[in-house]
Amino acid sequence: MSPPPLGFEATYAACREGVVACAGECDVVLASGPDALSYLQTQCSQDLGGLGVGESAESLLLAPQGRVEAYVRVARVEQDSALVVVAAGFGDAVLERLSRFRLRVKVDLAVARWPLLALRGPKALELGGEQVAACVPRGAALGLRWPGLVGLDLVSPEPACPEGVPLGDHRALEAVRIESGEPVMGREITGRTIPEEAGLVGRAVSFTKGCYPGQELVARIDSRGRNVPRRLRGVLVPAEEGDPPAPAVRPGAALRLDGRQVGEVTSVAWSPGLGATVALGFVRREVTPPATVELEVPPRTPTGPAERPAEVVALPLRT
User: Residue 244: how many CB atoms within 10 A of its CB?
Assistant: First the structure.
């Protein structure tokens, strides 16, 4: 018998201390054929040369100018096939990007929408390998280690939840994602994002592999001290008397310093652990955390949006 679903605060606690599962979706591009892995190696920012069957790695697909077209995870499922996993809604863009440079190589590409079962919490890593493998027929178990958070993403046409793992509240997973500083496609990662801004270079880029599209800009920024016009930061909005236990702001809200806009919120959630609204946002480099700013909040008067103090801080928000 499956355990009963967990509520918001119980899910949040399980992410930090136990294990919990949330059902979702992802897009998958299946690359197969004799040249599948060697072709992906020429397109991805990560070194996939040593990737064994059953292993996965984070990577970026970049435009020639160095901007992020997709943040993906590549899982080798057989000797000559791999899954390129991306957030739901971005599979067609990944397929188009990988097809763009496919010349004289023996690789077939196909895109599909698959279920994804997100397991979060330290006890996720205690699950047996055979047990996890049985949960992802024709798929893959993608490990993740975010600051302060670990887990597995089970990606398969028919993923199964491991026995004894309860289902939980998606809102809590969003809170711990934000606390960890983990960027996602469509929010923190868009067509204007460069890898260094979003903190993706250290985990998704290899400086020792061969050439790939967009490599020149990544290498140039690295050689010049990794200075970029803006960076992904955390934002803390302390609770005020009468606040509901829910975000007081919305994505797109402006961050201002001395009356000048210096950033914008991209994701927001309520954190039970911090007792505050937590957010991610891109902030101009001249704002050195910790820094107090004014954050735009929903209209409270007919004259337009109000503002309240918030703190721009370095990521992660919680470890």
Answer: 8
Altogether, the residues listed in the chain come to a count of: 319
Burial class (CB in 10 A: 0-12, 13-18, 19+), 115: middle
Are the C-beta atoms of residues 212 and 206 closer than 8 Å to each other? no
pLDDT tier, 210 (very low <50, low <70, confident <90, very high otherwise) = confident
- Asked whether the whole model's pTM tops 0.90, one would answer yes
Q: Are 138 and 236 in the same domain?
A: no
Q: Tell me: pLDDT of 112 over 60.
A: yes
What single DSSP character describes residue 198?
A: T
Separation of alpha carbons 87 and 298, rounded Å: 29
What are the CA-CA distances from residue 221 to residues 182, 217, 250 (Å)? 21, 6, 31
223 phi/psi in degrees, rounded to 5: -70, -20
The CATH number given to whatever domain includes residue 48 is: 3.30.70.1400
Domain with 292 in it: 230-313
The percentage of the chain sitting over the pLDDT mark of 70, rounded to a whole number, equals 95
C-alpha span between 211 and 126 (Å, rounded): 38
CATH code at position 286: 2.40.30.110
The rounded distance, in Å, linking the Cα atoms of 131 and 120 is 16
Structurally, the chain folds into a number of domains equal to 2
Same domain for 145 and 37: yes
Q: What is the DSSP letter of 44?
A: -
Backbone angles phi, psi at 45, to 5 degrees: -75, -20
Higher pLDDT, 3 or 220: 220
